[in-house]
Amino acid sequence: MYTQERTAMANLVVGGPVAVNSYDNAIVAALVENRPVMLVHAFNGGYLRPAELKEDSHDKGVKLATALDPATKEAEGHLWHITPAGFFGQRPLYFIESAAGQVSPKPSGAGAGAGGTDAGRGDDGAPKPKRRRITVHQEAPKSTADTVQVGLPDKVGDKWRGKNGAPEDTQLWVVTVTPWGGITFVPITHPDAILGFKDHTVAADSEVRLTYNWGGDFTGTVINTFYPRLPNEWSVPYHHVFT
After folding, report:
1. What is the tens place of the pLDDT at every residue in 116-141?
2. Which of 52, 66, 128, 232 has its CA 20 to 30 A from that of 89?
3. What predicted TM-score, i.e. pTM, was given to this entire model?
4. Residue 217 — pLDDT band, cuts 50, 70, 90?
5. 112 near 27, Cβ under 8 Å?
6. 114: confidence class by pLDDT, cuts 50, 70, 90
């Protein structure tokens, strides 16, 4: 059911038949303005963070943290960019990129960097920073191997690259807004799976995995829903925001 009566912004439909309503500033900021957000879990209020914050780490995964320690905050390990990345049919696709360990490009005229190519430029003409993205294992979710890593497309291992040769395939997500104001991430390589946790355990330091969407609908299950929160909203209890 469409809910487009609030503002013009509500006409933005993301991933399914639920429109984004402008009352949730964090969702709009994440998807439209590409502002960094915290991804707070619907079940226990923990937040996603890379297991390793360093920019040269490309073979480590993501975990759920329940305390925001100074080192993580300083490195921006609690923040993610949900970056537009084209379309799959009518559905917009996104990268989930960590703000931790991002590499600012060299100024114009200083060379294109180690990759040898310009990573692209933003609307203001400035080169975009290189950010590590959440990457899915080709054999997820049936494999018992690590099924999620945080790394640059040209740095992740072979099993984290697209089968058709495009490394980005394993890093593209459909972002679905749920009726209760959260978001669910669906990888395009495994459309019947959603971002969840190893052994379905939602606790401190739980490892992020792909899990089958046992809920069976476009919203996934409540336990695998995340609430985007702007950094200045961290002190607001997530379950009070939407009531």
Report:
1. 445 555 555 556 778 999 999 888 88
2. 128
3. 0.79
4. low
5. no
6. very low
